[in-house]
Amino acid sequence: MKCFKQLFGASLLTISSLAVAQQSSITDQINAVNAAEQQIRAEQQMQQAQQARQQYEAQQQLQRQQAAERARQQNAQREKDQKKEQAELERKREQQEEKARQQAYEDKIRQLDIELKEAELELKKARARRADDFVTQELNQTKPSN
After folding, report:
1. Residue 2: is its pLDDT beyond 90?
2. What angle do CA 92, 93, 95 make, to 5 degrees?
3. CA separation for the pair 80, 84 (Å, rounded)
4. pLDDT at res. 134
């Protein structure tokens, strides 16, 4: 019986050791699983953070492109407006020049008309003087001498 007790004690000790070893092995496995899960979560968080950063950078790039496009369109519109304004000013300048030419032409016509009427008047005066001279000469010839 003593042997049996020793054998039983040794077996019990071996079983306890195995149980402790298995328990420690299970704990190690649980710890390993927890560590793996934490690592997976950390990697997922890093991937999410990287994706968020990439999305933010893409959004910033898109906003910069849109701002550049708006600026380009505004510049193009400003240039178009300036060209339109310049063309309008040129058209008005040409109209003023044409009006000035037309006015000068009309002034010249009026001046020529005045000169023509003055010449006609001088001609009438000259005719009237010749007629007066002729009448005076006729009167002097028909007048009896005293």
Report:
1. no
2. 60
3. 6
4. 86
